[in-house]
Each structure stands twice: as C-alpha cells, then as structure tokens.
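User: Before I run my own analysis I want an independent prediction to cross-check against. Here's the chain; please return only the structure tokens and, at the end, one sentence I can use as a sanity check.
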Amino acid sequence: MRILIFNWRDIKNPTSGGAEILTHEMAKRLVKLGHGVTQFSSSFENCLPEESIDGVRIIRRGYPDARYFLKSVHFLAFWHYQTEFKGKFDLVIDEIHGFPFFTPWYVKEKKIVLICEVADQLWNKMFGQFFGIMGRVIELFYLHLVYKNILYFTISHSTKNDLINHGVNKKNIKVLPMGITIPDKIKLFNKEKIPTLLFVGRLSKSKGIEDALFAMEKLHKLNSNSKLWIVGRGNKEYVDYLKELSRKLKISDNTIFFDFVDERKKFELMSKAHILISLSIKEGFGLTIPEAGFVGTPSIVYNSPGLSEVVLNNKTGLICRTNSLEELTKNINKLIRDKALYRKLAKNAFLESKKYNWEKTIIYFAKAINAL
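Assistant: Structure tokens:
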C-alpha cells in the first residue's frame, strides 16, 4: 500500500512531541511491513526540504501555523496533492492538531484521521477569548460535518469520549494501544542526592509549567531542599518569561532549563530524577509517564484527560485530586518524605511501562487499514 501522511511536524522538528514520535514509530514499521510511506510536514530552521528517515520519505514545506494561510503546511499540502500526489497513493492519513488538513474536501483516495486530542478549551488558553471562540467553532464544524464519515484513530479513551461529545459517531473511532521508545543499551543512573523534579515537554502555557515553578517556590518556603529540571523547547518569548519568573520566585539557583535534549540524555535525566511532573490541562496521552516509569521514576500529574488515564493513582504515581498548586505541592512533599510509598510507586511504574509496545500499535493499525 502507498501511504501519504499529512502532519504539521515531523520527527526531526525541534518542536515535535509525542504525536510525532507516534507517527514516526508507526510509519517506519509500516515501511518494514512493505508499505511505501511519504510524510508531508512543515519546514523548520536549517532543515532539509526532503530526506529519508528509517525508510520514510519526508517532504517539508511551509509553516505549521495555519494563520500563515498560503504559506502554511495545510494549504501547501492541498497544493502538492493537486500537483504531485493525486492518484499516486492508496491511503491518506490526515493528522489533526487543532487545525486539520480538510482532506475530505479534495482527497479522492481512502483517508483516515489520526487525532491525539480535541483542543476544546485549549483554544482559549492558547489564543485568548476571541480567537479561542473562533477555534472552538471551527473545531466543532469540521469534527461534526467535514469529517463526519471518516474513520478516526486516537490514542486514549478520554479523547474518544471528547470526539463523541463533539458529534463524532463512536462506531468510527478506534483507540490505538500506545508504545514507548527506549534507547539501545540504556544505562540506569543513581538518583540525585537532592530530591529532583523533572518536567519534560513542549514549553507552552497549556502544559502547566508555570505551576511547576510556583510549586518549587512553595517547597523552598517549607524548607524543602529540592531541584527542578525542565527539558523541552518553546517559543523564545515564553521561555524567557519562565526564566525571569524563576528569578523572581528566587528559585533560579535550583532550576535548570535544559532546552531540547536527545533521547539518550532524556532517559538519563529521567533516571536521575526522583519524580516526573506532568501538569497539562489536557493531553491526548502522557507518553513521558511510562518512559519515566521504565527507569523507575514515578509521576505526579494533574487530574486531566489523557494524564489520569496513564497513571494508576497510588500505584504507579499520584493524581492530584484538584488541579491546584496546593494539591501539587502536598503530593510532592508526600512522595519525597514517604520512602516506602516512593519505592512502591517506582517499582510499579517500571512494571506498568513494560505493557507499552509499538509492535502492538502497528499490528492493530495495520489490521484496521487493511480492512478499509
């Protein structure tokens, strides 16, 4: 089968996240199964306009933000389909990250949707009230009408429920089992001498990183000697704001911004840290949670869709009863001080991580697309 993937980012994009890991892990396995896979994604600074990664042909054009209109990856996907791709593929995968590629309007081949989360209230959080309302209206429009008869693949039951609530027929939704990617010959490290919190993800307001900084301030006021490691990239203006906030809160000496790190370094930091914290108001799936669990690091998460589905409360980590700074700080203190609880959660987090396997993902996916 010849497969074309439209996604706003590819695996090498500096701002790529869990969705791009999922896409690439599936794509390279589809290649191994004998399928031809091409991915069309946005450009980024100093990128190659085209390259092959693990047998997947990557073509890069345009900006990931649809507000660039004719220069956006969404419009250029349409243009390249009309001028280059039409008739050359058997299946088109339309990945939705807030804004879709609207493939039902122009793609004649079989098509499916891959969506990790329904943005919903994230529109207001990220773009303010005016553009947030516009985004939510557009989202309702395309989910309920444009993609009405398309097969959806998603990564959590919470996103499946969101899709149903937004008008998608539940018979058209399939939930993929998820996997994790572990570097070869991974090395485990001793935990830091000082209790160390770790945040891994894209640095944006919706990820709750500011609450992590405020929690550190509270911990220090309680005379708790601790550190915070922040791994990930984001908009420069926002990252500068976060660094300035850490200085204002007088925690900059105990907070390290690592920026982007490769997978081996990421797992080293996960291994050395004591607790992974994930504070998004909404996630499709918390991929870093089983990754951290693999190296014996339990998680504390907000009670948010996607995150609360991955953590087994009081077994592999702690889920905050309320998404508040007070509850977050209380749980961090609890896990730092209760050594027996910590050992139990760390052991169970490792055992739970063994259940995540990309081979299960691709077997499920391949069976579904072969039935189309």
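Sanity check: The mean pLDDT is 93.
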